[in-house]
Design brief:
- The protein is of the alpha+beta class and 350 residues long.
- The protein has 3 domains: 5-91, Jelly Rolls; 127-216, no CATH class; 223-348, Serine Threonine Protein Phosphatase 5, Tetratricopeptide repeat (Alpha Horseshoe), CATH 1.25.40.10.
- It has 14 helices and 6 strands.
- It has helices at 57-62, 83-90, 94-118, 127-140, 144-157, 164-175, 199-216, 223-235, 239-250, 258-277, 281-294, 301-314, 318-329, 337-348, and strands at 5-9, 14-16, 24-38, 44-48, 54-55, 69-82.
- Strands 1, 2, 3, 4, 5 and 6 form a 6-stranded antiparallel β-sheet that branches.
């Protein structure tokens, strides 16, 4: 086994794209690498890789496509491991394994909590109710095939369950792709009486218990919770509410991790984006301008400047907008999608 190799990247280079085949694991030795990914709420996030930190680990070990894009800012030097080399490298380094497990565990808890929020539930209940709830969320969102499948699984594993009649009614409608009936009562949690629910219930029960405990320890007023809620509100078109909550996050001074600091920084940008979506262009311009003053080297600086140009254009200041679009095209990386969009705007304005 030859061991890791050293690879040097120029500024603006892409280490890997989202959905690329994952074969290598990387360690940042020198320079700056930014990971760009979309969270469960559909919001694009950016995260700096720390010096000496591994990245690309989960997808390479799990052998699934990359979940983020890794881009070099400035220039960078990285160590590149093949998976067998990485496994051999960490095999006798227990502290590294424990550190990575803690990170993965934390990420899993965050995803679980975000899924609970999307399903409209504060904490996990029993598996039968959870399965019905998932089925109905799919149905209400027009995903008839997934809804029908989930209803069928409920009937298969809980033939004598509390929601059997409801599941039979809804599975027929979902198969016919009939919109969710407005006359049906809201799904209400009812404890299942017996232990006759079968093997699946026992499997899910063991998964639900730790999730319940971990869920109860999550502070709804934490930076992460408030940021996720604000993102959900923005994606739901509730812009006034999202602006208020992003403002609350942007003013937080109690961040203790780099991730929390990034959420505080990002919130000022998303205040502007929410205002822009609400067609409040003066408000958007004010928020985007404040971001530039407060975070002149922020991770979202280029995207912020591009949206400032969009808001300026929408407010009727065409010449000023052209100058801003021109500045965007000159910011590294020069060949990313934001630069291309800005160039298209400049061509269209001629």
């Amino acid at each position: 086994m030859s061991g890791p190799i050293v690879r040097n990247y120029k500024g603006g280079s892409i280490v890997y794209f989202e959905k690329d085949k994952a074969e290598d694991i990387f360690v940042l030795q020198k320079g700056r690498v930014v990971l760009t990914y979309t969270n469960i709420n559909g919001v694009e996030l950016k995260e700096d890789v720390k010096l000496g930190e591994f990245f690309g680990v989960k997808s390479a070990i799990g052998r699934y496509p990359r979940e983020e894009t890794a881009q070099v800012i400035g220039a960078a030097t990285v160590l590149v491991f093949k998976v067998p080399e990485f496994e051999k490298f960490v095999s006798d380094k227990t502290h590294l394994i424990i550190k990575m497990l803690k990170v993965f565990s934390s990420q899993l808890r965050q995803v679980h909590r975000q899924v609970r929020e999307i399903l409209g539930q504060g904490e996990a209940k029993n598996p039968a109710f959870e399965l019905m709830n998932v089925a109905e969320v799919y149905y209400k969102n027009g995903n008839f095939e997934h809804a029908a499948y989930a209803f069928e699984k409920y009937l298969q594993h809980y033939p004598d369950g509390m929601y059997t009649d409801r599941a039979r009614q809804l599975v027929d409608l979902a198969r016919k792709k009939t919109p969710f009936p407005l006359t049906i009562q809201e799904l209400v949690y009812k404890p299942e009486p017996g232990a006759q629910a079968g093997k699946l219930q026992e499997m899910l029960k063991t998964m639900a218990v730790p999730a319940q405990n971990s869920g109860s320890s999550i502070d709804p007023n934490s930076i992460l919770s408030q940021y996720d809620k604000a993102s959900t509100l923005m994606n739901a078109g509730k812009y006034a509410e999202s602006i208020d909550l992003f403002k609350t996050v942007s003013e937080r001074t109690d961040s203790v991790t780099q991730e929390e600091e990034q959420f505080v920084e990002n919130s000022l940008f998303y205040m502007g984006k929410s205002s822009f979506k609400a067609k409040d262009y003066p408000g958007a311009i004010a928020h985007f301008s404040n971001f530039i003053k407060k975070y002149p080297k922020g991770l979202l600086l280029k995207e912020n400047l591009y949206h400032l140009a969009l808001a300026t254009e929408a407010s009727g200041e065409k010449e000023k907008a052209k100058q801003l679009f021109q500045k965007v095209t000159q910011m590294p990386p020069l060949d990313d999608s934001i630069s291309e969009d800005a160039k298209s705007k400049l061509k269209g304005g001629k």
